[in-house]
């Protein structure tokens, strides 16, 4: 007797992922945006801080320098700590330090406290590389590209949002209000990260390289302090030359120590591979080219009309000029992911650098009309989106899963060094090409055009560096690392 055929059951409705899983990407992205906002909000305050704190203009500039130095030092250190001890744990700690720094800024008008608080906020520079590493560990490949592109773009999005926000608060409210607002946002970010982000099971065990961390910190402080203060102290002064000499000596000793260390802070053998090393070079050059756009645009549109080219805009209006660039970065990050998926992140990086150069060509062609200034700045922002979104994907494809946070931390560090160098170079060009307007030295239009040409040339160099990066297909080692990642994640889920 024949058995009756089994009756097929209609497929049930698709089960939506838990709310926590759906919020992982938005929470991580909001943390990156908040980090960039924190770094930017002090800029509109700089002209008024000497009066508000009773300190000199040179002294208050340390509220920016302290964040730059601490961020550069802590990004690779916290990235390595995340790979070893847990990425969510270290990420939450970095956001907490940023929030504590904001609370201290809100409570005090003492310059020493403000500088120390801003140094604490520099820890948040590690948010983006840690978040990218978490996304690699937790997301399937088909969702990873767009999420990583969005995460990398949050730096520009937050900077574009932070300047007009801070300018509005400074203009219409007490300046402490701005830090109370960022404190509340920071506390919300800490709680949301702890709740919505899972701890990655991917670890690289071992002893933390304390000596390597101290050596890197000393070398970077000497290097970046010399770069950031060279314009005011004098590039040929004993202090600046001593800092550069000290940086070269300390970093040379650090390099030797890292090659000998069993578990180094930075795997220099990995960095020496062309796919990784050239990606870091491209990050440095792209950071230089990108940062000149924000620096020069802000000064150009605020220049007095008596200069013959300036528009005399307020700080709020200046921030609104940069806002379209931030919106563009948000909109173009999915496009960057699609180009990387179809053509490879190497091509996306080269395309982005070429678009940056085109943006500076627009700036050179016309920097008198406001609408052309906005178009040029937005084109540069578009290219930056493509380039910045491709860089972490290049790193993820080239390094083992256990070193993604530290490797991306080094990549972000190279961007920071590029931005610091850009700031010093642009300042040197504008100071050298200045003329008196109403008894006050103002950069000439020729000086601004030279700065645009310099940044455009560096962008073309970044494009060339991207094109000579070896093929970016996923190597067998990376496939094995991703298989290990999936296995660790599955075991952790079974244990839960």
Textual characterization of the structure:
This protein is mainly alpha-helical. Helices cover 77% and strands 2% of the residues. The protein is built from 20 helices and two strands. The protein has a two-stranded antiparallel ribbon. α5 packs antiparallel against α18 (404-432). The longest helix is centred in the N-terminal third of the chain and has 32 residues, at 141-172. It is globular and about 65 Å long. The protein starts with 18 loop residues before the first helix and ends with a helix. Residues 5-9 and 473-496 have low confidence and may be disordered.
Précis, in short:
This protein has 496 residues and is mainly alpha-helical. The chain is built from 20 helices and two strands.
Mean pLDDT across all amino acids: 85
Oligomer: single chain
Estimate what percentage of residues fall within beta strands: under 5%
Category by helix and strand content: mainly alpha
What share of residues is helical? over 70%
Low-confidence region ranges? 5-9, 473-496
In N-to-C order, the SSE pattern is HHHHHHHHHHHHHHHHHHEEHH
Give the termini distance in whole angstroms. 47 Å
* Order of strands, widest sheet: 1-2
Q: In total, how many beta strands? A: 2
Total helices: the number is 20
Main sheet? 2 strands, antiparallel
- Shape, per Cα inertia axes: globular
Task: Based on the model shown, name its key terms.
single chain; two-stranded antiparallel ribbon; 496 residues
